Every structure is written in structure tokens, then in C-alpha cells.
Amino acid sequence: MSLFNDLSKFGLNNLDDMDIMEDKKPSTNTKAAQAPQLTIDDLLYLKKHSCPVCGKLILHPALRAGKNRLIRTDDDLKVTYSIADPILYDVVHCECGYTALSKTFPNLLPSQVKLVNESICKTFKSLNLPQVRTIEDSIDLYKLALVNTVIKKGKNMEKGIICLRIAWLYRDLQDIDNEKIYLENAYKCFKQSLNTETLPILDMDFSRTTYLVAILSYKCGYYDESHRMVSTLLLDKRTNIKIRNRALDLLEKLKPLITKK
Ligand SMILES: [Zn+2]
Q: Which of 98, 104, 181, 228 is deepest in the core (most CB within 10 A)?
């Protein structure tokens, strides 16, 4: 299945078969129901950004931290909050088509501006996005961010983070097939990042990235590789206690799968 078989609605017809790897090397917010005393409207505010591609001022909906409490963290580090999912608001989109994670949005080289202009902006059809984002809105935006990252020749780490978040959003929709496709691509991008890029990148250090490769390769059925990554983490004295404990949990799940071989 193509990662981008539904891009034509953005006017980006020619990019369906694009490979996200470099050669060289998440409805109205359902979480709101869990905390009836506060709603998404209490957390939302508009943050100003200037688009590095077209120069326009963007008012991007963002979430105030604080009252949005952490409820749980899944084994692949997906977090669930009491009121709203911050992931839904962590992509900044300009009507010219340029779209990126909020941390990377302002940082474009002149050569990247040119690439985005030529491959995205020329044919982009603007979106009509509500301020309160649905999971489906966010999946569209993260796919646009992924296309932009490939076009601007961005880092594998950035592509991995975007793919992992798309997988999480499909998990929220209980769309297992699409979740699997994006988990597998996140795994490939993080692995490539570990092998070719200097970490930390975007708050992802060696331990966290190695753990994600371990848990994602486990979820994709690559048990031997997962076991190697867990061993690396457990032998490395720099691995912090939280990641070490998660690696030990994963080791328990892997034991019966490894001995079968
Ligand atoms: Zn723009």
C-alpha cells in the first residue's frame, strides 16, 4: 500500500509513489470526556508563526500545558493526556502548503525553501482546517509534514517521529492496518537515523532512539534485532532508569520468541 495514496486532495498528484527513505545511508477530541471540568477550549490559544517559505503570518492553534495531565505512556512511548492530545497540535501548517513539526517549522535553508516552493506550493490546494483538530485532520497534516520533510531532504529522525505519530493517530482510530504500515516506516527511519545521523536530534538521544528501534522491531516481528537492541541498552551505562526498565519489560516478552529459533 502506498503511504501517500490520498494526496490528490491536496493537489499533490505526482507524489503518491514517493519513497521516504534517503538513498545514502492522531474527531473532536474524545479525551475531553475524561475530564469534564475542563475542555479543549480552556487549553487552546493561537500562536504566531511566520512562514519561512511564503512569508505570511500564521495563527496556529496550540495547547497550554499544565492542566492537561499525563494519564499513561504506551510501550512505544505514546502518551495519553487527561484533556487533549498535544500531538494533534504539534504540526504547523501554512496555506501555501509548507507544513512541519512545530520545532522544525522555522528552520529552513534557502535551498530547502526552493525545493518546497517548487514541489509543494506550486500546485497546493489550501485546506479548510478547524481550530479544534480531529484525529483525521491531524493525520492529513502529519502526512503533509512527511511529504514536506522528504521534499526538503530532511533528517531520517524527523521522518521517524512523524511516521510514529501517524501510527499513534491510527491507533486512536483503531485502524490496525494503517498503524502497522506507519510503525514499520518509523522503525526504518529511526534505524537509519541511528546509523547515519549525529544524535540527539529533536530531543531524541541515543537511548530513546535505540529503545524505539527495539520496541518497533518487536512490534514488526523482527525479534532477533529487537533482542540485539535491548542488549545494547542494558549494557550501556548511560541508559537511564526509565528506558532500562522498559528494555527489561521488552526482554521478558522477547525471551520465548528468541528461544524458539
Ligand atoms: Zn507559507
A: 98
